[in-house]
Amino acid sequence: MHELTIKTGRTKQNITEALLSLEKQGFIEWTNKQHVQSILIIKGWEDEGKKKPNRTISSNIDYWTQY
């Protein structure tokens, strides 16, 4: 926790509240609240709500220019 407070500039209370919120939302599992090393990431939030476009590759050039 000490390293998180140094690197983020947040207080221990702010970090704990954020982690508890992530646990409540189902993003992490935090079994031992005394140590942040016990945090298990269940799912990422980067792709939440994003719909992946359906693209078809019509030629080799499309592959290299669209992806």
Quick structural gist:
The protein has about 70 residues and is mainly alpha-helical.
Commentary on this structure:
It is a single chain. The protein is 40% helix and 9% strand. With 67 residues, the chain is mostly helical. The chain has a two-stranded antiparallel sheet. A hairpin with an 8-residue loop joins strand 1 and strand 2 (39-41). The chain is elongated, with a radius of gyration of 19 Å.
Write the layout of secondary structure elements.
Elements: H1 2-8, H2 12-24, E1 28-30, E2 39-41, H3 60-66
Antiparallel strand pairs: 1-2
Q: Strand arrangement, largest sheet?
A: 1-2
Structural class: mainly alpha
Q: Major sheet: size, sense and barrel closure? A: 2 strands, antiparallel
Task: Give the distance, in angstroms, between the N- and C-terminal Cα atoms.
Answer: 39 Å
Low-confidence stretches: none
Q: Could you estimate the helical fraction of the residues in percent? A: 40-55%
Name the overall outline: elongated
From the alpha carbons, calculate the radius of gyration and give it in angstroms. Answer: 19 Å
> How large is the share of residues in beta strands?
5-15%
Task: Please trace the helix and strand order, writing H or E for each element.
Answer: HHEEH
**Average of per-residue pLDDT values:** 82
Number of strands: 2
Task: Write a concise keyword list for the protein shown above.
single chain, 67 residues, mainly alpha, two-stranded antiparallel ribbon, 40% helix, elongated
